Amino acid sequence: MSDWEIWAVIGALAVATAATRSSFWLVGHHITIPKRVQEMLRYAPACALAAIIAPDILLNGAGELQATLSNPKLVAGAAAAAFYVVRRNMLQTIVFGMLMFTALRLTHIL
């Protein structure tokens, strides 16, 4: 790609982002979202987070499924999920999960 094509793509993406993000702000008071849709939208952030995290935890570098106990990301993720269920503190869960993952990688236990 040439320089002008790269800048054209960046400009187009900036316009598209601004248009989609500002659309509800500009016409939001004219549109009412049904209560059922509002309830479903509450789960969108969790679904997006799961869609980002699950492939990283379950797939190895070659894109193959690695759902065994020899996968330190999977073990650390499961331990962090259990930690969150007990403690209900997101910051502590993040720190615990990263410490667990680091310990597993450094000790090569699995």
Question: Which helices and strands appear, and what pairs or packs with what?
Answer:
Layout: H1 3-27, H2 35-41, H3 44-58, H4 72-87, H5 90-107
Task: Sum this structure up briefly.
With 110 residues, the protein is mainly alpha-helical. The protein contains five helices and no strands.
Walk me through the structure.
With 110 residues, the protein is mainly alpha-helical. It has two domains: 1-31; 34-107, no CATH class. It has helices at residues 3-27, 35-41, 44-58, 72-87, 90-107. The mean pLDDT is 91.
What characteristics describe this protein?
single chain; 110 residues; 2 domains; flat
Order of helices and strands: HHHHH
Mean pLDDT: 91
How many helices? The count is: 5
Structural domains: how many? 2
**Gap from first CA to last CA:** 44 Å
Helix content estimate: over 70%
Shape: flat
User: What percentage of the residues does DSSP assign to strands (E)?
Assistant: under 5%
Going by helix content, strand content and strand pairing, the class is mainly alpha
Radius of gyration equals: 21 Å
Biggest pleated sheet: none
Low-confidence stretches: none
- Could you tell me the number of beta strands? 0
